[in-house]
């Protein structure tokens, strides 16, 4: 329930509504409008490759070697974004903070980026789509991108002064996610309404569970 509702203070109660899909309470790190169905990729790590593995010391003998290493990183990052574009991936959903070079090439190749998602949000998206996060680097950077989620729409959403991300997914299960937008004059009223609704949904779950048994 916490990931499927958003409280918006400063609006009348009548402004409350239900929206299809999910609403992520953060702004795009990069936004590239795209029409029609697109593919989304889930990641849990920075996409800019590291110069060395954890616990391994990286030694350079000159400034030239260091600059060459940075160019190698840039080329690898650009190559990955090209691969995403060729696989029709237009949305990157990341639990990690991405570096500026990733955002730069995402914009260049038409890939929208939403970063710093919580573990609960990532788990919800995985449940809806049946897709696991992708690990682009390690021993095989060039492994095929197979697990991508179908997205029916992806757009900015303004809730008073808060910029959010509104996404619709093609669900692989019976669960069709919708997000409840709770409006009220102050946070306290919205919190009370949200708590009451959550208790009501919990009661309904228990009722249907008993019937199923």
Q: Beta-strand level of the residues, as a percent range?
A: 15-25%
Shape: elongated
Order of helices and strands: EEEEHEHEHEEEH
For the biggest β-sheet, the strand order reads 3-8-7-4-5-6
CATH overall fold name of the largest domain = GroEL
Q: Number of helix segments?
A: 4
The CATH class of the largest domain, by name, is Alpha Beta
Instruction: Give me the CATH architecture of the largest domain, please.
Output: 3-Layer(bba) Sandwich
Structural domain count:
2
Oligomeric state of shown chains = single chain
Structural class given helices, strands, pairing? Answer: alpha/beta
Q: Which residues form runs of ≥5 with pLDDT under 50?
A: none
Report the helical percentage: 25-40%
Rg for CA atoms: 21 Å
User: What is the CATH homology-level superfamily of the largest domain?
Assistant: GroEL
Largest pleated sheet: 6 strands, mixed
End-to-end C-alpha gap: 24 Å
Mean pLDDT: 83
Structural key phrases:
213 residues; alpha/beta; GroEL; 2 domains; 6-stranded mixed β-sheet; 3-stranded mixed β-sheet; 33% helix; elongated
Give an account of the 3D structure.
The chain has two domains: 1-21 and 177-212, no CATH class; 23-173, 3-Layer(bba) Sandwich (GroEL), CATH 3.50.7.10. The radius of gyration is 21 Å and the shape is elongated. The chain is built from four helices and nine strands; from the N terminus they run ββββαβαβαβββα. It is an alpha/beta fold. The strands form two sheets. Strands 3-8-7-4-5-6 form a six-stranded mixed beta sheet. A three-stranded mixed beta sheet has the order 1-9-2, with helices on one face. 33% of the residues lie in helices and 25% in strands. This is BBS10 protein. It comes from Struthidea cinerea. InterPro entries: BBS10, GroEL-like_apical_dom_sf.
């Amino acid at each position: 329930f916490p990931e499927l509702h958003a409280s918006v203070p400063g609006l009348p109660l009548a402004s409350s509504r239900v929206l299809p899909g999910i609403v992520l309470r953060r702004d795009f790190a990069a936004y590239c409008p795209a029409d029609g169905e697109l593919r989304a990729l889930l990641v849990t790590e920075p996409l800019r490759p590291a110069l060395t593995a954890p616990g391994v010391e990286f030694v350079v003998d000159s400034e030239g070697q260091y600059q060459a290493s940075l160019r190698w990183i840039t080329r690898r990052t650009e190559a990955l974004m090209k691969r995403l574009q060729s696989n029709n991936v237009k949305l990157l959903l990341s639990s990690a903070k991405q570096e500026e070079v990733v955002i730069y090439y995402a914009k260049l190749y038409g890939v929208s980026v939403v970063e710093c998602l919580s573990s609960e949000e990532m788990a919800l998206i995985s449940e809806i789509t049946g897709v696991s996060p992708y690990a682009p680097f390690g021993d095989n950077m060039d492994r095929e991108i197979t697990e991508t989620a179908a997205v029916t729409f992806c757009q900015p959403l303004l809730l008073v002064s808060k910029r959010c991300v509104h996404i619709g997914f093609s669900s692989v299960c019976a669960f069709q996610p919708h997000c409840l937008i709770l409006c009220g004059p102050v946070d306290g009223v919205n919190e009370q309404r949200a708590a009451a609704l959550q208790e009501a949904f919990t009661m309904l779950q228990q009722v249907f569970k008993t019937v199923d048994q």
